[in-house]
Known about the structure:
Elements: E1 9-14, E2 22-24, E3 29-33, H1 40-48, E4 53-55, E5 65-69, H2 71-77, E6 89-90, H3 95-143, H4 145-150, H5 161-169, H6 179-189, H7 229-237, H8 240-250, H9 269-276, H10 279-308, H11 320-345, H12 357-402, H13 404-446, E7 450-451, H14 454-465, E8 471-475, E9 483-487, H15 498-514, E10 525-530, H16 538-556, E11 571-578, H17 581-587, E12 598-606, E13 609-612, E14 617-619, E15 627-629, H18 635-646, H19 650-668, H20 673-683, H21 702-715, H22 733-746, H23 750-757
Parallel strand pairs: 3-11, 3-12, 5-10, 10-11
Antiparallel strand pairs: 1-2, 1-4, 6-7, 8-9, 12-13, 14-15
Helix pairs in contact: 3-5, 3-13, 6-12, 7-9, 10-11, 11-12, 14-15, 15-16, 18-19, 19-21, 19-22, 20-21, 21-22
Amino acid sequence: MSEKMKSVIRKITLNGATFDNEVIEPTYVNFFYGRNGVGKSTVARTIEGDDGVVWQDGRSASDYDVLVYSQDFINRNFETYGDLKGVFTVSEPNIKIQKQVEEKTAKKDELDRQAGEYTEQSGQKVTAQQNAEDTFQKACWDKTRDICGKFPDAVKGTGRKNLFASAVLAVKAPAEQDLDKLAELYRIAYDSQARTYSQFSRISAAPTYGRLPGNDLMDKVVVSSSKTPFANFIKALNASDWVRQGHQHYSKEAAGKCPYCQQKLPANFEAEIAACFDEQYQQDISELTRFQSTYARETSAIIDKLKANLSDPMPTLDLTDYQSKLSLLESNIKINEQRIAEKVKEPTSVVSLEDIDSLLIEIGQIIDEINKKIKANNDVVGAQQQKKEECKTAVWAHIAFILQSDITSYKTSLAQLKKDAEDLKNKASQARKDSRALAEEIAELNKQTVNTKAAIDSINALLRDSGFQGFSLREKAGVANVYEVIREDGSVAENLSEGERNFIAFLYFYNLVRGSQSSEVVKDKVVVIDDPVSSMDSSALFIVGAIVRELITICNNNAQIVDDKITGTYIKQIFILTHNVYFHREVTYHQVEKYRSVSFYVIQKVHNVSTIGAPKTRQNSNIPSELENYNPVQNSYAALWNELKEIDSPISLLNVMRRILEYYFMQMYGYEGDDLRKLVLDDHKEDFIIPPEKEGEKPDNMKFNLASAMLSYISNPTGINDGLNLTEDYAEVSQYRETFKQIFYALHQEQHYNMMMGIKE
């Protein structure tokens, strides 16, 4: 049996989106089928981004034109109604230039070959380095297993072979140790219960609150010194606070009347009132207010600071006295705040504040004693840390002593391998430098043979030769590299459909594949086509299908499967991804028998994880000694949907529906029969039962019973369906169809249903 043929991309590892380290090894031609949302675009972007892609020896993505048709390509290259980038293609060069290009290309190819050979040899030296490293790491691991088992904490953090070997190489002074003494040192150093603690934050030791501005007013009767008759009268009644408060509350609303007796006030009443409270009185009041806010702010900060000390205290501390003094401090501060508020309200009152300065001094003394204990603990722990370092150094010194011969041998071998690899790398780099210089020379020559109009002419010729009449392209007058889409009647298509837009973009892409994107030397191609027929009508789809088959043939020509009508081998690898069954059928025609150069893949997503099944094969019916591919997307599936649209008999309709459900959800989507039945009839039961309109009536279970009948065959391939047999007149055909549709919608597959039924969303 023949093996699959490898092309330029040898392996792709997918880790983007919902893929988890999914690996494929593609052939020349690769077909991927999967519904929307399973990860097809991730495959395309992985190849385009050269992320996780392994190329054939001595090659990289820079050696090829990697051309990817996708929605990203459309967005980059198609704007408004025809703004396309210029496409550079080679026209008929003169003989002299062509000869020079051929000579320089041959020299460049030889340099590329040499660069690849040097790179391969350098890679072999790097591989030898890795082998030497692996051997050394294993020796380190195996020869010191017993020592590491006796002192596990001393070698903690080096649990992998590479980390362990690096630690061995870092030892500066290997030395044999007395293992009994080392064991005792290890016991002392690694007491697991010890740790350091932060010291308590201290407050200022000096009493300050007795000297805050305004404190001296607390035990002073604050009254006005005014000598007006009215002021003397108020003082005689000891009513200064009463008058001040009453005036503040009622002056605006009194409307010139006494708020108590309702008599009209004298015209100079406000002046008399103001004269009762002189400037000194007002200053005292302001001083009291400032003292109130300052006291509250500063005492709050002190309390917060003292409480923060209790967030992570050392467990052995006795904090009873500290907490008691702190609680008393909080209590006294609250009392003082109440008294200050009373003084502010009634300045003539005499208030005495609780002493907190003494408490602050006492708390500071307690904190000093606590910090002494914390420091003593931290000193012990600090010494333990020193012992740990001593122990760790001694253990690694003994390990390095055991491995001395291995270390010497490894360093000598590694140094030589690194030198050889670097020399070969430099030779490869010089060859590539010379190759790039030749490429620049070739590019300068090719500039003389570049035709910027070739792409549009080619697209128009293709549309004309294919019998397509929907539109043509025309260069927009006065605007370079901008093209108009012209309808059949000669008018400019101001509003293109999504399908038309995608079609033009694909034709542009096709010309990129046939020509060159820039003035640089033309390279071989790797082509990726991601769902090219989205929203296209049948005529456009037909043309796209024919083009893709042409590209597939060119790629297959590399595998010695030469087509007389379609020549060329410049497409070295092609990837075609689609969700469209019809398109898949069109482009895979006659590809099953090309076992060695063609592979078929199915992309599935279950539980939000995307997977790609390995290509399946089967024995060639014509040549039993050979294999052929197995196309997982069979033509019968699309035929079933066509049959579904035409059938009017309930029994026949039910059988077709069962077959579609089995194929799509079990073969393509990956469900088991019982799982699918549970998902629909249990988890989404409410979607199939119509609740009663009136109380006392029974719910309508028609759709549920029909769904059960459709799924019974899937769950029970023997044909036994739990006793549920539906006769032809059980339900209307429309009810069967509606229930069938509901199954797809309940499982969030409405897009696939609409596509297969030809319903435009």
